[in-house]
Amino acid sequence: MSVRTCTSKHILYRYDHLSETIKHALKVDEENLLDELENLSRKLKRYITPLYGKCLKDVSEPSNELMLAKLHLPLFKTDPGRQDRTNSEPILVFPDLQRTFNAFRQAGLGLPNEEVLSLTLTMRKFISQIHIKGLRFWGKICGTKKNYYVLEVDQDISNEVKQNAGLVSNDQRISPLPADAHEEELDALDLDPPPRPDWKPPTNLMAEESGKGLNKKAYYVCNQIGDKWEKLPDVTPLQISVSRMIRCFFTGELEAEMKSYPPFPGLEKNYLRAQIARISATTTISPNNYYQFDEDEEESAEEDAFRESFIQNPEYEPMSIFDLTDSSLANWVHHTAYILPQGRTIWLNPKSKSQGENEGDASDDEEEDEGELEEPDEPEPETGPPLLTPLSEDAQVEGITPWTTRVTSRLVPHYAYAVLSSNLWPGAHAIASGR
């Protein structure tokens, strides 16, 4: 027959299959045999047709590229509802990262194009999920296990609950060294006292409110583009003070414990937030006269009051790149508040809190020791340079200038950029175009 062209013990051909189907059909006593013939043929194919290893495929683990593609896939989807928004709803426009990183790329800095595109898409998605007033890509911090992408947000205080304001919880304080349980027994022996460290924990001061000082901006981080953005907690003066004393690598895990001496009061997310505050206070700069103080501020404010608000100068005239790269650094200014030694931008009297808490105890002690000891003098308020202070007043670091200047191209200076790189925080750069 034409339906059978060859024979094989491994393959079930149409003739063999038809023969087996008819043979099994004759054994079945059913009235609707023709209707069940197709089901019978299907069962024979399933149980009689042999399977070989070449027909099966190994179950492979999904590759990192596939997982990354699935993570980025939602970023490329548009929201039709956003196109139908009314004109009364404000639209937040964040900086053009493609143009910004194109300028950094001429200086040999920045991120790859694919990463910049993914960042732009995830920032677009971010502003659609949370109500904010401003958004900026702060930077990328490398860790031993994972990396951090950081967004700087101008938070809307009216829609947020002020958290982490006031004193930090007890679990974030640095506890003094425990006293020896056998101290009395050791005193009875004629032995030299054991050495004790001279280090004392810094004073635990009140943290600045959200929207002011070091907590003026909010910061969100994620380990991989496409992941959920996690908000970092507000920073406290104690965390700033201790972060100045230690050096630790980031692991990329926000909930990781900090192992350092002096002990850090918090987890890695608190240490990350403290380092971001320190880096921002030192390296957030702009050309001179690019920003100016708002002349329409409240006239009731004192002349010596701390000013942390400024606006962009509409009459700013760009300088040449050679003026911007002048070694004197007089044409660049800081537009972020200076961090005082106590870990705040606005000085707070440390005795104002302790006297309020121990008012009852102090009254009893005064009755007993009246006239014996005089009250100590009030601490001298700490002051720092005001906003928009030129970089020429920055202190040197072990004899090294805090900034290095260069031009991206001296062959075509008309299209070149002025680049400033921080020597105190390697990896922090500022770039500007001249006239």
What would the keywords be for this entry?
435 residues, alpha+beta, 3 domains, 12 helices, 12 strands, 27% helix
Written account of the structure:
The radius of gyration is 35 Å and the shape is extended. It has helices at residues 14-27, 33-48, 64-72, 80-83, 97-106, 113-127, 183-188, 237-243, 268-283, 321-324, 350-357, 359-368; strands at 132-141, 148-155, 218-222, 230-231, 285-287, 291-292, 311-312, 332-334, 389-390, 403-407, 417-422, 429-433. It has a 4-stranded antiparallel sheet, with no helix packed on it. A 3-stranded antiparallel sheet has the order 5-8-9, with helices on one face. Helix 1 (14-27) crosses helix 2. The protein is an alpha+beta fold. It has 3 domains: 14-46, no CATH class; 93-174 and 201-282, no CATH class; 284-296 and 306-350 and 382-435, no CATH class. This is Radial spoke head protein 4 A. It is found in: Cytoplasm, Cytoskeleton, Cilium axoneme. One of its GO terms (biological process) is axoneme assembly.
Termini separation comes to: 90 Å
Helix and strand run: HHHHHHEEHEEHHEEEHEHHEEEE
| Strands ordered across the widest β-sheet | 1-2-3-4
Count the E strands.
12
The outline comes out as: extended
Q: What's the number of domains?
A: 3
Condensed summary:
This protein is an alpha+beta fold and 435 residues long. The protein contains 12 helices and 12 strands. Strand 3 and strand 4 form a beta hairpin.
